[in-house]
Amino acid sequence: MKGTSSILLIYTGGTIGMRQDPVDGTLKPFDFGQILEEVPELGKFGVRIDSFTFDPLIDSSDVEPSLWQSLAKLIQERYEYYDGFVILHGTDTMAYSASALSFMLDNLTKPVIFTGSQLPIGVPRTDGKENLVSSVEIAAAKDEAGHALVPEVCIFFDSKLLRGNRCTKVSSEDFRAFRSLGYPALADAGISIKYNRPAILEPKSWTEPLRISTNLDTRVSILKIHPGITPQVMRYFLCGEGTRAVILETYGSGNAPSKGWFLDIVKEAAGMGKVLMNVTQCLSGTVNMDLYATGKALEKAGVVSGLDITTESALGKLFHLMGVSPDNNWVKNRLGENLRGEISK
Ligand code: ASP
User: Fold this and answer.
1) What is the DSSP string of 153-195?
2) pTM of the predicted model as reported, rounded to 2 decimal places
3) DSSP 8-state assignment for residue 218
4) Residue 58 forms beta bridges with which residues?
5) What is the rounded average pLDDT of the residues 165-185?
6) What atom in ligand 1 is closest to the CA of residue 60?
7) Whose CA is nearest to atom 1 of ligand 1?
8) Is the separation of the CB atoms in 128 and 16 below 8 Å?
9) pLDDT computed for residue 290 by the predictor
């Protein structure tokens, strides 16, 4: 690592910086200055670390797209001054935030690493120190040409660096809280940090500037298909005035009930011009609507395949694309494109 690297550490909240309230015993955020006091190891890197603290600090259950807009703007404003960015964020919605940011930041040439912890940084068995220290090291890492080794939006957790828009939170207790679905880790932090360089995305250009798009259209609903689903629920989610797009979480390779009323409602919503995106409930594999008659019927009714995208990433992709264009056909046509490594294509 070069001694001249500089990192901006952005603190949004989450367990990593929380402490127990002596009165009611719940975890509440504490002052960021205390995080740096808790991790003196950060001073040993030869990396300049500046910090930015959001006000108010939040439990990530309170994350709204306005936080993503603020993060994108902050990164753009400070882009030329730093080699990388580390974002401390609660784990509960970290995969949503990392996914959304990946779409909002175009031609990213520097690392943006989300991390957090399962145990607050001040407690003896915390995972927060290792997550933070390794994230800073990765955010500062350069290749032989002096380019960032990982110019992507990532999540670092429990020794694994994962592509942000492939992640899902899989455990509320284990230190390994995240899994990357359908894509290998970008790096493994053991005795040394081993980068999986063929798996890491290159920017479109190392010389062109970062472009951000902060216009997000949030008129999306997510419906998990389940046995016993009723026409009333289906119609509410798919045909409601407030939604422009619906993520249908389907079974297996993209299958759903073949009952007449079910497909009629899907056709009704498609006829209204809604964007209907098919995302599998499975943790691995892809949507392939050509495999079974029940999937084929959805495709014929106007549903678009999300391939192997995660639900978190599908949400960010739709918010972003719908924010870029008011044309739903244009949005549908872009869903099958691999924009930031979010799908295997
Ligand atoms: N509820 C917390 C949050 O997401 C959990 C965590 O940080 O891990 O903000």
Assistant:
1) EEEEETTEEEEGGGEEE--SSSS--EEESSS--SEEESSSEEE
2) 0.95
3) -
4) 13
5) 95
6) 9
7) 59
8) yes
9) 86
Q: Which residues are catalytic?
A: 15
Q: Is the CB of 90 under 6 A from ligand 1?
A: yes
Tens of pLDDT along 250-288?
Answer: 999 999 999 999 999 999 999 999 999 999 999 999 999
Asked if residue 333 has its Cβ within 6 Å of ligand 1, the reply is no
Q: Helix, strand, or coil here: 7?
A: strand
Which has the closest alpha carbon to 270: 299, 231, 291? 299
CA of 18 to the centre of ligand 1 (A): 9
Q: Would you place residue 2 in the very low, low, confident or very high pLDDT band (cuts 50, 70, 90)?
A: very low
CA gyration radius for the chain?
21
Closest C-alpha among 215, 6, 214, 208 to residue 108:
208
Q: Is the CB of 312 under 6 A from ligand 1?
A: no
Mutate to test the pocket of ligand 1, among 58, 59, 169 (most ligand atoms within 8 A of CB): 59
Assess whether the C-beta atom of 92 lies below 6 angstroms from ligand 1. yes
CA of 277 to the centre of ligand 1 (A): 28
3 CA to centre of ligand 1 in angstroms? 33
- Two tokens at 50? 């500046």
Q: Whose CA is nearest to atom 3 of ligand 1?
A: 90
Measure Cα distances from 248 to 240, 295, 335 in Å. Answer: 14, 12, 14
Angle between helices 260-271 and 231-239 (to 10 degrees): 10
The torsion angle over the Cα atoms of residues 126, 199, 283 and 319, rounded to 10 degrees, is 90
